[in-house]
Amino acid sequence: MGNSTSQNEFxxxxxxxxxxxxxxxxxxxxxxxxxxxxxxxxxQTGTLRKLYRDSYDAPQLNNKIGDRETLTFDQFFELMxxxxxxxxxxxxxxxxDDGINxxxxxxxxxxxxxxx
Length: 116
Description:
Layout (H helix, E strand, L loop, with lengths): L11 H5 L6 H13 L6 E3 H8 L5 H8 L4 E3 H18 L26
Antiparallel strand pairs: 1-2
Helix pairs in contact: 2-5
């Protein structure tokens, strides 16, 4: 199910096409996925929920994940793409490219408050 997402085979342009995201934003989503320690191409949703637990977005994320225990990259990308596009509409001045590859945790930060 879905595309292979090993680091050597990842094709960011495939995901960027018609997504409304920049190539750097797609690569940032992939970096976040990789930081969640996927096993056999799957991440544990519990890990993702923990990262979001204090976030403004936690209820929406939990609703979107539902009762799934794992996500493929394609599923994760769809979740994050939708979330990122909504944030780009709400906060048009925020640059989601800036530094996303250096600190994947910033992807989960709420724009209105600092993470400690």
